[in-house]
Amino acid sequence: MRRDLLEREPELAELRDAAGEAVSGRGRVVLLHGEAGIGKTSLVEALRADPPAGTRVLVGSCDAMSTPRTLGPLRDLALDVGPRLRDALRGGDREDVYAALQDELADAPGTILVVEDVHWADEATLDVLRFLARRIDALPAALVLTYRNELDRNHPLNRLLGDLGPRERVERLALQRLSPAAVGALTAGSGLDARRVFAMTEGNPYFVSELVASADEVSVPPTVVDAVTGRLRRLDAATQEHVEQLAVVPSAVDADLLARLVPGSAGALRAAEEGGLLAVSPDGVRFRHELTRRAVVDSLPASRRIELEQRALEALVASGVADPARLVHHALAAGDVGAIVEWAPRAARDAAASGAHRQAAAHYRVALEHAGRYDAATLADLTEQYAIEAYTVGAAHSAMLAQTDAVAQRRALGDARRLGASLRWLSRFQWFDGLRAPAEASAQEASAVLVDAGDEGLYAMALSNESQLALLAHDTRRAIELASRAIAIARETGDAGVLSHALNNHGTALMFLADDAGMAELLEAADVALAVDDIEDAARASVNLVWGLLDQYRLDLAEVHLERAIEITERAEFIGFVSYQQMEQARLHLARARWDDALAVIDPLPGPPHARCVALTVQGTVRLRRGDEGADEVLDEARRLAEHLGELQRRGPVAVARAEAALLRGDAAAARAIARPEYEEAASRDAASLRAELGDVLRRAGDADIEVPEHEGFPAAVQARGDWRRAAELWREAGAPYHEAAALAESPDEADLLDALAILDRIGAVPLARRVRADLRERGVRSIPRGPSNLTRQNPEGLTDRQVGVLRLLAEGLTNAEIAERLVVSVRTVDSHVAAVLAKLGVQSRQDAVRAARELGLLTA
C-alpha cells in the first residue's frame, strides 16, 4: 500500500469490485466523496495504475473555472474513445452525445469511467451522468464520480445526487480523515512531531503530506499555502515563473499549450516535478493536487496574475483551441474586455447547443456587462438570447426583465419582424412571472405587428401564443378559434414548431370541453415537436395531456403519460416544466388519497407562482382532509396567489377546497358563497371538469340552482346530479378512495355509511370520518367502529407512516422494484421514499437506515 493510500484499503477494494462487476456485465455507480485533500484523486490514480484484468480506465476532470466548460470532462476523453463519440463531443448535440457514449460503453465491457470533481461540472455534463446512471444496470461499465461534500442546498449537483441516492446499483464511499497512527506513519523519519502535525491538519492526508514535504526540523509552516509557497521558493527563479504560469490554467495543460507557455518544458520543469509540485507526462503536465495549484495562484500579486492570465489567453488563441469557455475564463481573469466581448457569446451558444443552459445564461450575462461594445442589432440578439436561457432554467423574473429590454431595443431598430417575435417571447415570460395583463397586451401587439410583416410562420406563432393565453384563462372558444387559424397556416407552410405549439393549444382546449379528440392532438403535438428536437413544446404537450386527464380523474392513464412526460423533460433543463410535472405527481397522489406522497413531492414548495399556487392547494387540501392544523391558512394563501394570477384554472380548484372546508365544519352558506362565483365563470367558459366539481360542492351545500352537462365518464358530474351510487362506482374505478367515501356518505343506507367509514379510517380522513360517525349515531346505529386511535401519529425521527412502512420492507431485504410491487406504486415513488428515509435518519445507505431504525425501535410492531 502506497504511503498516500494509508487507511484506504476498503475503498480501493470497493472500486476494484465495481470494475470487476463491469467486466461481467453488471454496471454500478460509485459516488466517492469527501473534503478537499481527503485523497479522492489518489484512489483514482491507484486504480488507474493497476486496473483489474480486462478493464480500461477513462478519466475526465471538471475544472474550477469561472463558468464550467461545456461537457469538459467528457471532451477530455477524446483521444481515448472511438470516432463516433469523439465526433459527437466535438459537435456538442445532446442526443448524439447520449447515444454515442452509451454505445461506447456497451461495446467495450469493463470500462471504468471516472469523472473527477463533479462539484465543478456544467449542467450538460450532469445531464449526461444522470442519463448514464439510470441505465447503468444494462451497461458493462462502472461510473465513478468524485466530489467534495461541502455543497450548499441549491448546488446543481444535489439534484443528481438526490436522483441517484436510493438506487440499488449506487454505492457511496465517504473518505474519512486519517487516524493519529496513520499521521505518525506519514511523518516517520521527518523529524516532525506527529501529534503536532495531527493537531494542525486534523488528519487531512493532503495537508499532512504538504507539511511533511515542506518542513524541516526547525520549523513547520503554519498553513498549507505557506507550505506550498515555501517549496516553490526553494526552486530557481526560472522554474518558479514556469510553475506560476501553469498555475493560472485550471486544467491539465496539454503538450501543445505547454510548449507555448514553457519553452523547453521537458527540462525546465524537472525540478518542480522532483519537488512534488507537478506531474509531467508525454501528454502534458498537471499539478499533483488542485489545492496545490490554488495555493500558488493565491500567493500571486494581482498584477502578476493578470499578466500570467493574459499570456495563457494568448497562447490558447494561438493554439487554435476550440473551447470558448476556456478563453472566457482567462479573459475575465485578465480583464481583457475585447476577448470577453468576442468569446462570451460564442461560449454561450456552445453551452446552449449542448443543453448547458445555466452556463449559457452565465456567459450571456458576462457579455451583457459590456453592452456598449456591441452594435445595436447584436445587443438586441444577445439580450433576447439571455432572456430565453434564463426562462429555460426557471428564472422567470430575470427573463422578463431582460426581454423587456430586448423589446425596447427592437423598437429602436425598426424591424417589424424581429419586434413581433420579441413581443411574443415577452408575453410568454410575463405570464410565467405572474403578470397576466401585461402578457395579454404583449401578445396582442405581437400579432398586430406581425400580420403584415411578411413572415407567415411568425404570425402564426403569435396567433398561437394568443391562443395559449386564452386557454390559460379558460376562454376555450377563443383559444380554439385562434389555434385553428395558426394550425392552418402551419400546415400550409410546413412549420413544425408552430404546428406543435398550436396543436397543443387546440388539443388542450378540446380536453377542457371533455372531447377526447384533444388527446390525439396533444400526442401529435408532442411527436411533431420531438421530430424537430423541440423539447419545450414536447414537454408542454405532455404536461397539458396529463393535466387534462387529472382534471377528469382518469388517473391510471394520467400516470402512464406522466412517466413519458418526465422522461422527455429530464433529458433537458426546462425547470419550469419539471415543476409542473411535480405538481401533477402531487395531484395524482392527492386524488388517490396518498397524503404523505403528495406532501413529499411539493416539499419544499416551488417558487414560480403558478406551480406554487397548485402546491399550496394540494397542501391545504391534504391538511383539510386529514384534519391537520393550518389547512385554512394554507388555502387562504393559495386564494390570494390565485387572485393575483387572475386565472380560473388557479382560482377554481382553490374554491373547491375552501368550499369543502366550509362543508366539513357545517357552514353551508359559506360554501355556497365561495363556490358560486367560480361555478358561474366555469359554466360561462365551458370548463367541464371544474364546473362539475364546483356544481357538486354547491349541491351538497343546498344550492339547487346548478346545471351540469351529461358527462357519464366524469364522476364529479354524475355526483353533481345527485347520483351518489353511480358516482361511488366511478370513483372506485378511478382509484379515488376519498371521493368514493364522500359519495357513499350521501347514502340513506347504513351499510353504505359503514363502507364509507371503513375507507375513511383506512386513508386517515379524520374530519369526514367524524361526520359519518355522527350521522350513524343520529340514525341509532350501535355498532360503530371506533377507528384508529391516532391517525396522524408521527415517530420521533419525523418519518411518515408510509416511510416507516417502506423502511420495514427495506428491513425484509426487498429491492425498490419489489417494494413498488408490494405497495402498488411506481418505482420512482419508492425511490423518493427511500431517499427521504435516508435523509431523515441521517445515513448514506439502505443498510445503515435499517440498522438505525432497529436501534431507534422504529421496526417494532
TrEMBL record:
Pfam families xref list: AAA_16 (PF13191), GerE (PF00196)
Keyword Nucleotide-binding appears in the UniProt entry: yes
GO cellular component: cytoplasm
Keyword annotations from UniProtKB, A to Z: ATP-binding, Nucleotide-binding
InterPro entries, per database record: AAA_16 (IPR041664), P-loop_NTPase (IPR027417), Sig_transdc_resp-reg_C-effctor (IPR016032), TPR-like_helical_dom_sf (IPR011990), Tscrpt_reg_LuxR_C (IPR000792), WH-like_DNA-bd_sf (IPR036388)
Signal peptide range: none
GO molecular-function term, one example from the UniProt record: ATP binding
Domain HTH luxR-type residues, every copy: 792-857
A Gene Ontology biological process term: regulation of DNA-templated transcription
PANTHER family linked to this entry: TESTICULAR SOLUBLE ADENYLYL CYCLASE, TRANSCRIPTIONAL ACTIVATOR DOMAIN
This protein's name: AAA family ATPase
Natural source organism: Agromyces mariniharenae
